[in-house]
Specification:
Methylamine Dehydrogenase, Chain H, mainly beta, single chain, Immunoglobulin-like, binds (dicuprio-$l^{3}-sulfanyl)-sulfanyl-copper, binds dinuclear copper ion
Length: 655
């Protein structure tokens, strides 16, 4: 093909993609660019103003960035094995990935949400949901480690999750794919009326954050997509979008778009919680794993639980309603005052704004438009407060700046639109590169947003960075939103597919961030707290190595008497008591990852030697000038040999 033809084709594709036709180079030159550069520039050694926790999507993890710099600070393993530190590989952490389907080493994480007190971010924990094998995780914002994962039985595709109520009383989970409940073998084309859409309510213990699956609301079999809690005046309610109210089971791209309107479910969870407290609901079958990591023993355990309280929404009169929403809604957001609920129809150009007050009046006046499976449908006209008509295409998600404005992403026209609460007037629109999904303003879904920056989380990257073959990281963009117009400041790549993010002022968690684990508080079963206690114990073909690390050696560093066919457990305790001095441990031929052991911590990996010989192990983290010397040997003898089990450090052999 002639070069000119190629060029034209490329240009055409580019314009199509950008939609609103803006040139991606605009704003990258001249005086404006240099003042923008100042706004994101952090001198070496300076800290960012905000933490941003970006969902890792199909990486299964959660990644921590700094704003405004876009510096990547950490990847926190949640639903996926992570060889970087041994999460999901070490003996202690494997249980975190147990489910009722067995060990699942991967997840699809979606929506992180930070715990709140009185509707404000409190920096205690961050929660995130897993879509594929429905689960919700809680991560400590002191250690930045995953502490708990709870599975959701009777669900499939947990998407409307993990949003927290304003005092972190509950987080919710929903089923994106309607399924038989209880699961059973039945013809797919008989789904209509037979499949269900259970919504899960997980209560949170305020002291430790422990999650408890309190009840499931057994809703009709629509696809529940996203959710947000009411706040302030609407506290006590939860709102969920649903699509495929057609209950189509095939070619959903066509068949699930037949109805002009789908539904938002409005759920008075306080009423249902009260009902449960008084003995309401029915215990139904449901097996689910509840995994907890104990910081003191540094070990995760799985409790396989049976049965869950199920509530038929028709049983609790006045607790559950549907509100019609045009054109296959996706995102659903509640403004900081709790007065307005915004529903975004993916196939619409308009946003539907509902008033909480009008919802209450409609309920009072029984302003219903029939019902769906016995759930009253509030009449659209009676609950609609206004419409945001920006002309943008494919609205997905809205966040708020706390100054009276909403910001909505439009996937198809690839832009973010700023509009005013109350007048519903469009104030500004800026292109995103390209095809923005979610967006995030720190605290943007709380009573108190920090409306300085907005991050758009874009689905398509294309030409924004140096090409890296067919697979590219996703692309985030940072905007200054302090003025009337949004100003694009920075592009930075993000790992996996960040479906959502949660931002918080650094001041709220920086000081509490743990520096190391106290050796004294280490209650790990195989911990050794000084070199004198390091040892080996043989129990049949299992050998336990109680080892320590300190700059720059292992104790013991020579081991003999291991035999082919043994199962060797290396329990490594890092004796350091200082910030940022991990030691790693890797053993040749181990069928697992390394482990990275933080100061004061103990971790275990298994090695099953396959061949006779003298085999090295070493520290994987460059911990000191003599890091390369931080190594040891294991002598492996034949299965039937009588080589004595002994170990040494500095040639002092013990047995
Ligand atoms: S949500 S954009 Cu809209 Cu899970 Cu991904
Ligand atoms: Cu310890 Cu390198």
């Amino acid at each position: 093909m002639k070069t000119i033809q190629k060029l034209l084709l490329g240009l055409g594709a580019g314009l199509l993609l950008i939609g609103c036709g803006n040139n991606s180079k605009e704003g990258s030159a001249g005086a404006m660019a240099s003042s923008n550069a100042e706004k994101v520039y952090l001198a070496p050694g300076e800290h960012d103003e905000f933490y941003a926790f970006m969902s890792g999507g199909y990486s299964g993890n959660l990644t921590v960035y700094g704003l405004p710099s876009g510096r990547m600070l950490k990847e926190i393993p949640v639903f996926s094995q992570f060889p970087t530190n041994g999460y999901g590989y070490s003996e202690e952490s494997k249980a975190m990935l147990n489910t009722s389907f067995g060990f699942v080493p991967w997840g699809d994480s979606h929506h992180p949400d930070i715990s709140q007190t009185n509707g404000e971010l409190d920096g205690r924990w961050i929660f995130i949901n897993e879509n594929n094998t429905p689960r919700v995780a809680r991560i400590s914002l002191t250690t930045f480690e995953t502490e708990e994962i709870i599975e959701l039985p009777n669900s499939a595709g947990n998407h409307a999750s993990s949003f927290v109520t304003e005092n972190t009383e509950y987080i919710v989970a929903g089923t994106r794919f309607a399924v038989p409940n209880p699961q059973r073998d039945m013809p797919i084309d008989e789904m209509k009326g037979e499949f269900k859409g259970p919504l899960s309510f997980i209560s949170i213990d305020q002291e430790h954050g422990h999650m408890n699956l309190e009840f499931q609301l057994n809703m009709p079999g629509f696809n529940y997509d996203l959710a947000h809690p009411g706040r302030d005046k609407s506290h006590g309610w939860f709102f969920f979008t649903s699509y495929n109210t057609e209950e189509a089971h095939t070619m959903q791209e066509v068949n699930a778009s037949q109805n002009d309107k789908d539904f938002i479910a409005a759920v008075n969870w306080q009423m249902i919680a009260e009902y449960i407290k008084n003995g309401g609901g029915t215990k139904v079958a449901g097996t689910y794993a509840h995994n907890t990591y104990d910081e003191s023993t540094m070990t995760a355990t799985t409790e396989m639980k049976q049965g869950v309280i199920s509530v038929d929404p028709r049983e609790v009169e006045g607790a559950v309603y549907y509100m019609p929403v045009p054109k296959s809604p996706h995102g659903l957001d509640v403004d900081p005052s709790g007065r307005y609920i915004i529903g975004n129809g993916k196939l619409s150009t308009q946003l539907s704004v509902y008033s909480f007050e009008k919802i209450q009046n409609a309920i009072q006046n029984k302003d219903f438009d029939g019902d769906a499976y016995g759930i009253p449908i509030l009449s659209f006209e009676s609950v609609l407060e206004g419409v945001v008509d920006s002309g943008g295409l494919g609205p997905l998600h809205t966040e708020f700046d706390g100054k009276g404005f909403g910001y909505t992403t439009y996937f198809i026209s690839s832009e973010v639109v700023k509009w005013e609460l109350g007048t519903w007037e469009v104030i500004d629109r800026q292109p995103s590169y390209y095809s923005v999904g979610h967006l995030m303003i720190p605290g943007g879904n709380s009573r108190n947003p920090y409306g300085k920056y907005m991050v758009s989380l874009n689905k398509i990257t294309k030409d924004r960075y140096l090409p890296t073959g067919p697979e590219l990281e996703h692309s985030a963009q940072l905007y200054d939103i302090t003025g009337e117009k949004m100003e694009l400041l920075l592009d930075f790549p993000t790992h996996g597919e960040p479906h959502y993010a949660a931002g918080i002022p650094a001041e709220k968690i920086k000081a509490q961030s743990k520096k190391y684990y106290e050796l004294e508080e280490n209650n790990h079963k195989y911990a050794v707290k000084n070199e004198a206690d390091t040892r080996l114990e043989r129990n049949g073909n299992e050998v336990h190595v109680y080892a320590t690390t300190v700059r720059s050696h292992f104790a013991p560093d020579n081991i003999e008497g291991i035999k082919v066919g043994d199962k060797v457990y290396f329990h490594i305790t890092n004796l350091e008591q200082d910030f940022d001095v991990p030691h790693g441990f890797a053993m040749i031929g181990a069928n697992t990852s390394e482990i990275l052991v933080m100061p004061g911590q103990t971790k275990t990996i298994i090695w099953e030697p396959k061949r006779e010989g003298v085999w090295p192990f070493y520290c994987t983290d460059f911990c000191s000038a003599l890091h390369q010397e931080m190594q040891g040997y294991v002598r492996v003898s034949a299965k039937n040999s009588n080589t004595k089990l002994r170990w040494s450090l500095d040639d002092e052999w013990k047995d």
